[in-house]
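ASSEMBLY PREDICTION REQUEST
Request ID: AP-0331
Submitted by: J.K., bench scientist
Number of chains: two
Total residues: 420
Priority: normal
Notes: Please return the full assembly, not individual chains.
Input sequences:
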Amino acid sequence: MAQTSVIRSKVRHMSAPGTRDQDTQKWVDLLHQVAHHRDREAFRQIYDHFAPRIKAYAMNQGVSQQADELVQEVMTSVWRSADKYADSLASVSTWIFTITRNQRIDLLRKAGRMQAEIKVETEELWQIPSEDNTVSSIQQLSAQRHLSKSISELPEEQMIAVKKVYYEGKTHQEVAAELNIPLGTLKGRLRLSMQKLRVMLEAKEL
Amino acid sequence: MSGYHPDEITLMDYSAGSLSLAQSLAVAVHLFMCGQCRGQLEQLNALGGTLLAQSDPQAVEVQGFDDFMDTLDAKPEPQITTKVQSRLYNPLQNLLPDSFDAIPWRKQTKDIAEYDLTKQLAGQGVRVALQKIRAGAKVPPHSHRGQETTVILSGGFSDELGVYHKGDFVTRDASHRHTPTALQNEDCICLTVLDAPIYFVSGFYRLLNPFMRW
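STATUS: Completed
Returned structure:
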């Protein structure tokens, strides 16, 4: 009897709204293995999955020449800071994204350091989500779970605008020129896409 | 709680890491004071995580996992083992003394004093400063060539378009001519970032944009 109820509660836990799907949970478990046991096999899986995606990010962002350097910097941070990751605050891919973004900014800042004595560290301007600095809620996590599907439901022209601005690190002027649309139209598409994503996420949270 | 926020496109650019560093400082200072925008930022970061997860993987050429780990083992752990900050952090903390009174303000008029941070944050075409306006005083009417972003750190002010309090994030561009007046009860202290952006379109210079726009 007792066993059945444990199983049942596990099943309910797995399928309750606001919990994560198996794939999301898999990365959380692997990163915990790294944090608590310095588990190299777990880290190998994380590395094999994320390193090629970080490389793709670097190439999209126009830092192809330093792409492998970026991959190494990010994976070093992941290995060394795994204990700072809190699964209640962000998915593993979001956490790794914020580290990647910051390392890319660091690379660009280092390249321009002659121009100025810079006294603010990148991490002071862009915080990595961790305990105490992040508003955590169940909604945020279920939001994460549905985002990938929601993005694919955006009208194509909005999805392209979001990807170019968000993922290719381009200025609005550049993206507008590439798409051959006025700046105002681009901003309109970005605003619409953000509204749509929010509506889709909220609908799914109910 | 703050009533005026960066618009969602500004937050999106910030989250993507494509906003200029000076503007990012203004956003980060606002985030420090605004839980609502921190919540919105989490969603935007999650968008970044999702796009990262969805991207087409590219082969890492330089080394495989085992080589990577060998290199890592050979590297000494840095003294600060991580750059990941754990506490909610005021990005002005290391730039300013502990209290506003201890700042070496430079008087501009009898009502306005300034502390210039441009040298510490650098760059051409951008100005970053703290401004202190005496309670109840009026700033002469002005407009801007570029975009002016103001984040209120203490006190408040009003202008032709609204009344602003601690934490508020206020943006004015060249089309606005305004006459800010500090609220009566206390001095108004704010961070102002003046940005006259330079945009390059061709590939190579695009790389330099983040600091060219400082």
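REVIEWER COMMENTS: The two ends of chain A are 33 Å apart (CA to CA).
SIGN-OFF: pending second reviewer
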